[in-house]
Amino acid sequence: MNVEKSDLDQSPSYSDGGLGSPLPLIASLIVIVFGLRWFSGQLAPIALGFILTIAITPLYTWLRGRGWPSWGALAATLAAGYGILLALVGSIIWSGYELIRLFGRDEYRQGLSNLQDDIGGWLQDIGVREGAVRDAVNNLDVGNVIGQLGSALSGVLGVASSIGLIVLVMFFAVPDGPRFTRIVDRLARKQPYLNAGFDLFAARTRSYLLVSTVFGAIVAVFDGLALWMMGIPLAGVWVVLSFVTNYIPNVGFVIGVIPPALVALIGYDVNRMIWVIVIYSALNFVIQSLIQPRIVGDSVGLSTSLTFLSLVFWSFVIGPLGSVLAIPLTLFAKALLVDINPQLQWIRPLLSLDEDQPISVIDEARLAREDPLQLTKDESAASTNSGTSDD
After folding, report:
1. For a FRET experiment, which of 157, 200, 286, 328 has its CA 20 to 30 Å from that of 182?
2. CA distance 360 to 195
3. Residue 15 has pLDDT above 50, yes or no
4. What is the pLDDT of residues 250-276, one digit of tens each?
């Protein structure tokens, strides 16, 4: 990849103050991280509210462009956002209650008890000490499983209890969104990197949400149909679980397959569990590893390793919801810390590990406006780099 000389000259060093002294910088980051963690109960719903606002703001612009009055477009946009929120929270709560009811049935209580005995016997056969066997077996106790499900549901209800905060965030953020966009656009001439950075963040976030929603729904429906055909109960619950975990990068598929596989093992046998895992894996590989990249390419622009680290980091900072919001939050941090800073443009290709990515955020933002779903596949990205190389 050819790199413009001026881009290399902009690389900062500790001596010229480009990055600052390392120890104060590290200390500041630690304070910020634990400060965010301290307020995670409020930050998580606020972040969700803003991300939903970013997702639905184009609807407001589209309605205004078709002659809707401002108040009508605003009301319709808010109604759409609240509808998405209500459907998401309602489906998760329903799924949690259905799972508790399922494991409360006599046949599943007995099946879980049999599984408990089988695992205990197997652990003893391979020489695991008795105390460890007892602890492992107790974790599979029916009451403990139902208790864990109840705790998980309580966590969901805890998020649901913050719906009021999410609603308020969206109520004030949706009207401010178009005004914020217009102000940032006015700064394009004097602050081109700030304008391009926020434009790219919004475009990347919407592309990610669109791709994850569409292909997550496709995978979830096929998963549900396959489980229904195999006779696994609560196919609708597994559809919801598969859809939601699709927003969790890297490990979402694993999280989504464990519960139905466990139900297949308890309700049927090992062979049925293996079939569930095989079918889930096959559908996920074909749709998300073969079909999706051919259609939309990479809608995120982050390397695989950085995506995984973002999952770990945001889960630690704001809790379980951080795993779902990891990608948008990382894109926001990247925009705020790297993209809007002309002295740090050299870091951008290192974050994506994409040889065709434009070094300048201004060039990438332009490409995002032209073709937001195929940034890394677009040949114009390579031509942009070649156009800025040494003659």
Report:
1. 328
2. 12
3. no
4. 788 888 888 899 888 888 888 999 999
| Residue burial 252-280, b: 16+ Cβ < 10 Å; e: rest | bbeebbebbbbbbbbbbeeebbebbeebb
Burial group, residue 328, by CB count within 10 angstroms (0-12, 13-18, 19+): buried
pLDDT at 120: 64
Q: State how far the Cα of 362 lies from the Cα of 202, in Å rounded to an integer.
A: 14
Interatomic CA distance for residues 97 and 132, integer angstroms = 31
